[in-house]
Amino acid sequence: MDQGGSDVLGVLGRTSAPAGTATTTAPRAGTNAFVKTRAAMIAADTMMISIAAMAALVLRSQTQWLAAVGVTDQLGGFPREVAPQLSLLWLLALWAFGAQSPRRTGAGSWEYQRVLTASLGTAALVGIGAYLVQIQLSRGFFVIFFGIGTSLLLVGRLALRRAIQRAHVRGHFRSRVLVAGTDRHIDDVARVLRRESWLGYEVVGGLSPTPPPSGETLGGVEVVGDPSAVSAVLERTDVDAIVFADGALPCADDFRRTAWDLESRNVQMIVVPSLSDISRQRLDVRPVAGLPFVHVERPQRDLPMRVCKRIFDVIGSGLLLLLLSPVTLLVALAIVLDDRGPVLFRQRRVGIAGQHFDCFKFRSMCQDADAVLQRLTESNEGSGVLFKMKADPRITRVGRVLRRYSLDELPQLLNVFAGHMSLVGPRPPLPREVDAYEGDIVQRLRVRPGMTGLWQVSGRSDLSWEDTVRLDLYYADNWSITQDAMILLRTVKAVVGGRGAY
Questions:
Q1: Residue 400 belongs to a domain
Q2: CB 3.0-4.6 Å disulfide test: which of 66, 298, 397, 436 passes with 71?
Q3: Is residue 438 a contact partner of residue 498, using CB atoms and an 8 Å limit?
Q4: Domain membership of residue 315 as a residue range
């Protein structure tokens, strides 16, 4: 999610070494990866800014469209002479704002925020500076250069992030880490880092104050030492970072001394609080008397935000019903010609607060699908309360195409418009599935079910029941209008690719 992965490691921090402490710069595998990542970021930024400069030099003479948006150009503003200097200034601003820090790239929105801040700051500095010293800089060049350049920088960072994440999944450019804490916390952190392999962390061992007799945690992490003796462990273990979970060290003084030690050895320190599946937007770190208080804001489920989400759903579903009406007519015709059966399939589902409603779909199965299901129970390939079967014999020829591209779900726009569902939300469960819910799973009913959601953009039917529940609970706790918009954009890619659809 971008998948929500930036929140997995909680609060990340480095501390400064005390005066007189020597620092080492011994090369490490992860450090080399950071160097290569920074070089790739600088190269990508340079290329994008150069393209923007050339485009501005060519397009500035096209004054018709500039006049249409109210920009009057001065063609004598010597842009050719200042373009290299402005490009260099922009690159320096990206560096100064920390937008080229490899330790803060690959997940979350922090990287994009820094790129945008540096770009807007550079544009403001150039504009104000040109006004103060009376430099007749071409307005057309200024608008095109920073307008196209900022967009290209963001697109370039997105492409670079995807490339880095794919490299991490394939085992390249990973950071070797130790996880410190109690055995249970070591397993919890290790399980997340292994599951989210795109983050690029490779767990090579654990540090436990009470090592198990077997030398391994229940999750299979080898315990290589005690958190209070980090120096001795680092002498024989080559790692790039140590992740400190609960129970790692007894007091703040031990954390401070350990931070100094790690700084002198060029090893990153990562602290994970006892928080999981909470978005970064809900976390606010506020130093209070030297203590880093982590305030967790309430989920955005109050009345004003619910009203905004409902307005978004009504407008979005209404527009989609109009725009996709030719597609729905073609799909309906194909279903009728396939087996002469009914076009729509109506099924009872459970919505917000356990309320039942009729969910509409284009029929993708044979007309006696429910009766056939009784004979297929032993062939269930799903987990939990879900029934899944890749080669389900109930699906018709037209139905397979509809399911691959999620066209069978188009009638659910009517459910969204009526208020039973939302454009984005958890998967709408069947009543028999809800009856089988245990523990925290029922919390996914706190929000309206959706046509798409984190489960849709993260694998669809390829997901296990546990992962589906985890994503739904994460969404219920952390949803926002911005996240909904991002999920809708990612849904287009998931639907076109057809991954996990059956």
A1: yes
A2: 66
A3: no
A4: 303-497
Which has the closest alpha carbon to 424: 349, 479, 361?
479
Report yes or no: 138 and 75 within 8 Å, Cβ to Cβ.
yes
Whether residues 392 and 473 fall in one domain: yes
Do 66 and 215 fall into the same domain? no
* Per-residue tokens: 306: 């619910």
Please, are residues 245 and 185 in contact by the beta-carbon 8 Å criterion? Answer: yes
Residues β-bridged to residue 296:
283
Rounded Cα–Cα distance for residues 461 and 404 (Å): 11
Q: State which H helix or E strand residue 224 sits in.
A: strand 223-225
Under a CB-based contact definition with an 8 Å cutoff, are residues 268 and 14 in contact?
yes
Residue type, 477: D
Q: What are the φ/ψ torsions at residue 365 (nearest 5 degrees)?
A: -120, 170
Residue 179 pLDDT: 93
356 & 291 share domain: no
The stretch 221-243 carries a mean pLDDT of 87
Judge contact between 380 and 389, C-beta under 8 A: yes
Classify each residue of 373-412 as buried b or exposed e, where b means 16 or more C-beta atoms within 10 Å of its C-beta. eeeeeeeeeeebbbbbbeebebbbebbebbbeebbbbbbb
CA distances for 305 relative to 50, 310, 473, 482, angstroms: 42, 9, 18, 12
C-alpha distances (whole Å) from 190 to each of 9, 45, 178 are: 11, 34, 9
H-helix or E-strand containing 50?
helix 29-59
CB-based contacts of 117: which residues, under 8 Å, 6+ apart?
97, 99
Asked whether residue 14 carries a pLDDT value surpassing 70, the answer given is no
Residue 4 lies in a domain: no
Instruction: Please indicate, yes or no, whether residues 100 and 234 belong to a single structural domain of this protein.
Output: no
Q: Kindly give, in sequence order, each residue whose CB lies less than 8 Å from that of residue 354, ignoring residues fewer than 6 positions away.
A: 434, 445
Q: Are strands 241-244 and 175-180 parallel, antiparallel or unpaired?
A: parallel
176 has which bridge partners?
Answer: 202
Distance between CA atoms of residues 181 and 168, nearest Å: 25
DSSP for 322-359, please give it: HHTHHHHHHHHHHHHHHHS--SEEEEEEE-GGG-EEEE
Q: State whether 102 and 152 are in the same domain.
A: yes
Token pair, residue 243, equals: 């992740």
Q: Are residues 229 and 353 in the same domain?
A: no
442-488 pLDDT, tens digit per residue, is 888 988 999 998 877 876 656 777 778 888 888 888 888 888 888 88
Coil, strand or helix: which one is 402?
Answer: helix
Sequence-separated (6 or more) residues with CB below 8 Å from residue 182 = 208, 209, 210, 245, 246, 247
Is the whole-model pTM more than 0.85? no
- CA distance linking residue 102 with residue 79, whole number of Å: 33
Q: Give every CB contact of residue 118 below 8 A, 6+ residues apart in sequence.
A: 90, 93, 94, 96, 97, 99
